[in-house]
Amino acid sequence: MHYRQSQQWTAPADSGDTEVIRWALQNGLRYYYAVEPSLPDPCLKVHLGHTTAYFSAGKLVRLWVHADGQFLDDVFSQLTQLFEMCTQIGGYLDQQATVSLPHQQSLPVN
Q1: Residues 95, 59: contact at Cβ < 8 Å?
Q2: Distance from C-alpha of 80 to C-alpha of 100, rounded to nearest angstrom
Q3: Domains in the chain: ranges and CATH
Q4: DSSP code for 109
Q5: pTM of structure
């Protein structure tokens, strides 16, 4: 499998990420702009320990958790912090979720 190294970018002045950057600074989180496969260029990448969040124009566009089960408490804490911030600043895209047919069949029916 081939992985592409991300390239770092400087934040555009009107990127819409001001609130996300302020939140990252207040919480001592590492952040930078990078080009990532299948994401808008450039995206703001924020590291929350075992979780990495990707933002475009102030909206959460991808979430990556890189931890095994022994760190679930940390991950849940980081996700709670992230989702609270997204709720406060309107950091969610208007989107719909799709569930594949095999998964739909495994869902409980009311």
Answers
A1: no
A2: 27
A3: 7-93 (3.30.310)
A4: P
A5: 0.70
